[in-house]
Amino acid sequence: MQPFTTLTSTPAPLKVINVDTDMIIPKQYLKTIKRTGLGTALFSEMRYKDDGSENPDFVLNQPSYRKSEILVAGDNFGCGSSREHAPWALLDFGIRCVISTSFADIFYNNCFKNGILPIVVSPEDLEKLFDDADRGSNATLTVDLEKQEIKGPDGGTVTFDIDPFRKHCLMNGLDDIGLTMEKAAKIDAFEEKLAKREWA
């Protein structure tokens, strides 16, 4: 998993509340178990017209936001079914950070397991960040995970809370497998002892 330390990007504003996981990645794309290739299907029902052409009104199709790595979204982001394909699709598109006032619990947990930083801010701070995002390529946000700060284009700072263990995992690029491998020496020692017992 790619470590997350600091990230600077033009933020994309998605002013929609209750964005569920089916909106993030519709059910017809869930047949794959690969984590790659889902970026083109991210928000597909909003991104594309019925004929398959791009919807120019959708934020991620607009020139300023095509390469955004930060998504500023409405309340209750990631609600609905517990599909891990949702963070996979966001990450494959290039989104490394989602900022909202609240997240569905399962989606929130899945973000950390896949290298995405979900940040919870107050409604007042979200409005400030929406204002920054509305400026398009004229404005960038910098997310500093170590300092737990979001710096705006005009020098303003928003602070956020995060669980220390989750912060450690993100900063060091540790998913569940990585955490297990940190204990590889102890696992090997245990297995060696167990093998000697069985043959004793």
Automatic annotation (TrEMBL):
<dbReference type="GO" id="GO:0009316">
    <property type="term" value="C:3-isopropylmalate dehydratase complex"/>
</dbReference>
<comment type="similarity">
    <text>Belongs to the LeuD family. LeuD type 1 subfamily.</text>
</comment>
<dbReference type="GO" id="GO:0009098">
    <property type="term" value="P:L-leucine biosynthetic process"/>
</dbReference>
<keyword id="KW-0432">Leucine biosynthesis</keyword>
<dbReference type="GO" id="GO:0003861">
    <property type="term" value="F:3-isopropylmalate dehydratase activity"/>
</dbReference>
<keyword id="KW-0456">Lyase</keyword>
<feature type="domain" description="Aconitase A/isopropylmalate dehydratase small subunit swivel">
    <location>
        <begin position="1"/>
        <end position="122"/>
    </location>
</feature>
<dbReference type="InterPro" id="IPR000573">
    <property type="entry name" value="AconitaseA/IPMdHydase_ssu_swvl"/>
</dbReference>
<protein>
    <recommendedName>
        <fullName>3-isopropylmalate dehydratase small subunit</fullName>
        <ecNumber>4.2.1.33</ecNumber>
    </recommendedName>
</protein>
<comment type="subunit">
    <text>Heterodimer of LeuC and LeuD.</text>
</comment>
<keyword id="KW-0028">Amino-acid biosynthesis</keyword>
<comment type="pathway">
    <text>Amino-acid biosynthesis; L-leucine biosynthesis; L-leucine from 3-methyl-2-oxobutanoate: step 2/4.</text>
</comment>
<dbReference type="InterPro" id="IPR015928">
    <property type="entry name" value="Aconitase/3IPM_dehydase_swvl"/>
</dbReference>
<dbReference type="InterPro" id="IPR033940">
    <property type="entry name" value="IPMI_Swivel"/>
</dbReference>
<dbReference type="Pfam" id="PF00694">
    <property type="entry name" value="Aconitase_C"/>
</dbReference>
<keyword id="KW-0100">Branched-chain amino acid biosynthesis</keyword>
<comment type="function">
    <text>Catalyzes the isomerization between 2-isopropylmalate and 3-isopropylmalate, via the formation of 2-isopropylmaleate.</text>
</comment>
<dbReference type="InterPro" id="IPR004431">
    <property type="entry name" value="3-IsopropMal_deHydase_ssu"/>
</dbReference>
<dbReference type="InterPro" id="IPR050075">
    <property type="entry name" value="LeuD"/>
</dbReference>
